[in-house]
């Protein structure tokens, strides 16, 4: 494991010219921001998180994939070799790719990597800190691997609002289906529902409780440890808790939070929390527990946390999970932005007064589940997204957007009859630098989880029932957490605020992966009227092309 202090030490090298091996990657520093080089081989391999052999997706032979350990402003270069028998593409969930949606790794911006080929991602974790994940966006690959942790440590010159932990651990929890990704895809293609998961894993493992389990993590009595907890599953919200220990929440998806203590945390699909856990109990084994939430049948999995020089097995008496989603809604309301702490820059987080900015556009999105030609589809405002063979961003850049999609195919309000569903690409034309309010309304009985790539937003409101303008009276306009993923409870709504100042083509998607696969997503196109390198980078050299732009001459680049 590479501790938080060790990760921060990388920042000391920014003015030294050198080349050396670090954490399984190559680091090169040439008088500027360091560059990390990785080479990933994506292959099939047998995995068995629940004890049943499944054809999984490995990165460099690992499930979950390798952890990326970086520091603010590092440049990251990852050469991905696709050794699968089908196209593959990976996205970097929460990395904002300023001016550079070319590297976002979603099918609206990138062609998938063909079988037997490779593609090199090049991006910078510019002005970001925090805990993130990466995962595949093609087909149902995410269900069986190809995912891992991505951490961005603070630079040494930027103070963090807590002491350096004794070590820094990544805990990836998620639901799991033993059917395998091919069978899951066939189920969805046939118009059926995936049903319930078969179980839950913690870093790809489940403790058997027979006294022979190897620990997921070790702690030394009296010391404090940082755990980055992320839900990498495809469908199910999970509650995470540490037997006999409390968690102090310190960071959430790139923002330092007010440091409240929790006995357990609901982590919805695609979300990441960082907590501090102090080893203040009798030295022996303890369980870290993950349980499904909002499911008819609760499924629980455990992993071992072992004290160094401890004696004794973990107690079989597990801490109980919370009951009901009202508990989870109330927990959300306790999350607060730490206004006085720094994030990636020296200025305090609270220096950005988002609550005083006038809203220029309100978009209300209502999700629905309907059948089209007898097959299940998920939609937003009456349209279910379909992937064109040409990525949206490439079509736009090459000047052939009109042959691939139409802008604003959905209204800013749900239609009065939201039961009729059409199939089409969905692209919202967003005005550069507009301050926008997005309302997610969930009229279904299933919980939702949404992610917006390229941005962080302020999660200002959440409540039961339908949204109406007077609900703004209860918005948190002072210290709502800036984050990239938000849940919407059954028959409820959630509201976010953000400035669309990052040019590119950005994916707003359901993190519930069967919903994503069957159409519950859209893209926001943000184009600078200046057509300038100050606002957006040119098409990178070596980018994969496909669809109608394949073979077309490259458009002239922006010159300034």
TrEMBL record:
The keyword Glycoprotein applies. Transmembrane segments: none annotated. InterPro entries: Cu-oxidase-like_N, Cu-oxidase_2nd, Cu-oxidase_C, Cu-oxidase_fam, Cupredoxin. Keywords: Glycoprotein, Signal. Residues 1-31 form the signal peptide. One of its GO terms (molecular function) is oxidoreductase activity. Residues 41-155, 167-309, 390-530 form the Plastocyanin-like domain. The keyword Nucleotide-binding does not apply. Pfam families: Cu-oxidase, Cu-oxidase_2, Cu-oxidase_3. Belongs to the multicopper oxidase family. This is L-ascorbate oxidase homolog. It comes from Gossypium barbadense (Sea Island cotton).
